[in-house]
User: Fold this.
Amino acid sequence: MPSVPGLRSPYDKVGRLMYFGRMLDKIRLYARGALPADYHTNLGKAFDGRCCNFLRVSYDELKTCVLSTPMPDDTSVLAWVEARGGARSDEDCEIWNGFMMKRGWRDPAAEILVKRIAESALHGAPIMTMFDYLDFDEGRDPVAARRWEA
Assistant:
């Protein structure tokens, strides 16, 4: 998959949360018709679904909030989410980020990760997790940038 302008790395944080900003980007890009078709199947599912479950909001309600007029910024959306589903503690966020950024490394998603690496012909890249895969597949090098430390 080539780079998708306006789609940030899953490692990028909004507030204390990894992945959340990427999900917001996908919602906005899809609404504008700018999200490649390869991404459509998993909208609201997979990592999006896990994130919404963690935040205790439905994907459809989140999508409505994100696309409201005027469109709120990421911080406002996060505040809306916390008002609806409750704020998460620092420890909750640390566990969430740790789980998400290691997904695919020695867990049930490892088999899927191997398959995706093969499909994308990324055999030589230092991919250890699904986040790494997403970044490399979209033309970013999270290892060189040490994105998990940002």
About this structure: The first helix runs from residue 20 to 32. The chain has a mean pLDDT of 95.
